[in-house]
Design goal:
By secondary structure, the protein is an alpha/beta fold. It has two domains: about 5-10 and about 260-360, Aspartate Aminotransferase, domain 1; about 15-255, 3-Layer(aba) Sandwich (Aspartate Aminotransferase, domain 2), CATH 3.40.640.10. It has helices at about 15-20, 30-50, 60-75, 85-100, 115-125, 145-155, 175-180, 205-215, 225-230, 240-255, 260-280, 305-315, 340-360; strands at about 5, 55-60, 80-85, 100-105, 130-135, 135-140, 145, 160-165, 185, 200-205, 295-300, 320, 320, 330-335. The strands form four sheets. Strands 2-10-9-8-5-3-4 form a seven-stranded mixed beta sheet, with helices on both faces. A three-stranded antiparallel beta sheet has the order 11-14-13, with helices on one face. A two-stranded parallel ribbon has the order 1-12. β3, α4 (about 85-100) and β4 (about 100-105) form a beta-alpha-beta unit. α5 (about 115-125) packs parallel to α6. The N and C termini lie far apart (about 45 Å). The relative contact order is 0.17. It binds pyridoxal-5'-phosphate (PLP). Pyridoxal-5'-phosphate binds near residues 166 and 167.
Length: about 375
């Protein structure tokens, strides 16, 4: 017999209530019954996004919403800043390249957060820059970006601030309206606690003005089409009905717990995880700007990082994540995001300790 623990930064575990909701017979989406559900979901998304603006829902993984942000806010030949300090920051640059947008890349050392002043310098150099693409929680490195400070800068410039909060939403503080963020994109399979398949976008007035001018090609991922349908609690195409129904359950849970309590819980789990890693003699990959959703840890010398992840999954049923791209085999990542409790974290840490010992790790070295 085996019991599994999903401790990865997406997908994350789905609460039983949401799973059961998806087991109900499918309903049609052009019915008053679904419309009621969709209305409730859209209203609750505003609470989680901390915005008064509409939140558009797409049936796609999170990257669909990222692509939509590039395609709907910009035109070929436009200039945009892409902050890249990990795999997901790089995705912004790749998307800009795909749509003929000139990416001004701010390369950040992996494991560090961008210095907002560098963004300000770039914006001051060129008032023609149309957007600044950033990542709230860089899931590949476990770094948290100071979005509040960046928003403080972009609000004095022509550029719209776009934030990938796919893994950040529901785990990190992000005050869309109060901080003045123009576009927040997210996905369903991380802090929102349902399976992959839904993506979300919020847009400010400044962002909508850019949408009006945008000339990049788009069809399915059109903000205008989605907004028009949303005005009558509808979607332009068939939505992932079962996922929307599941989302109603997790959003209800989140409203009941309260955003502040949720964020405090994530903070506590993240802090506990980091302290446990240090106590085990391990080094954090991003000690200066750690996120509350995922902790990246350096694989200790002498241990095979990929085998460690596999060993924990195969022998103990605990699924953590390995490193991506240049961090493959060099770090492992423990998520404490979404439907995760203290017990899950304690279990994961204990299993990590056993697995490391079995792989020859000797533990912390006593200082001389
Ligand atoms: C998971 C994730 C994505 C990608 O989302 P998909 O749902 O796989 O398309 C993008 N950005 C960040 C920061 C993520 O954590």
């Amino acid at each position: 017999m085996k019991k599994t623990y999903l401790m990865t930064p997406g997908p994350t575990p789905v609460p039983p209530k949401a799973l059961l909701a998806m087991a109900e017979p499918i309903i049609h989406h052009r019915t008053p019954e679904f419309m009621e559900i969709f209305k409730e979901v859209c209203a609750d998304l505003k609470y989680i996004f901390q915005t008064q603006s509409d939140v558009i829902v797409f049936t796609s993984s999170g990257t669909g919403a990222m692509e939509a942000a590039v395609a709907n806010l910009l035109s070929p030949g436009d200039k945009a800043i892409c902050v890249q300090g990990g795999k997901f920051g790089e995705r912004w640059t790749e998307l800009c390249n795909a749509y003929g947008v000139n990416a001004i890349v701010i390369d950040v050392e992996w494991g560090k957060a961008v210095d907002p002043k560098i963004i300000e310098q770039e914006l001051k150099k060129d008032s023609g820059i149309q957007a600044v693409f950033t990542t709230l929680c860089e899931t590949s490195t476990g770094v948290l970006t100071d979005i509040k400070a960046i928003a403080n800068i972009t609000k004095n410039h022509n550029a719209a601030l776009v934030v990938d909060a796919i893994s950040g939403l529901g785990a990190e503080e992000i005050k869309t309206d109060e901080w003045g963020i123009d576009c927040v994109v997210s996905g369903s399979q991380k802090g929102l606690m349902i399976p992959p398949g839904l993506a979300f976008v919020s847009l400010s007035k400044k962002a909508w003005d850019k949408v009006e001018k945008s000339k990049c090609p788009k069809y399915y991922f059109s903000f205008k089409k989605s907004k028009k349908a949303l005005d009558s609690a509808d979607t332009p195409f068939t939505p992932a009905i079962s996922l929307v129904i599941a989302l109603r359950e997790t959003l209800r849970m989140m409203k009941t717990e309260g955003l502040d309590v949720i964020l405090a819980r994530h903070k506590k789990l993240a802090l506990s995880t980091r302290e446990a890693m240090k106590a085990m003699g391990l080094q954090l990959f991003a000690p200066t700007a750690p996120s509350n959703g995922v902790t990246a840890v350096n694989v200790p010398a002498g241990v095979d990082g990929e085998k460690l992840v596999k060993h924990m999954r195969d022998k103990y049923g605990v699924g953590i994540a390995g490193g991506q791209a240049e961090l493959k085999g060099k770090v492992f990542r423990i998520a404490h995001m979404g439907y995760i409790t203290e017990t899950d974290i304690v279990t994961t840490i204990a299993v990590l300790g056993m697995a490391l010992a079995e792989m020859g790790y000797k533990g912390p070295v006593e200082p001389a």
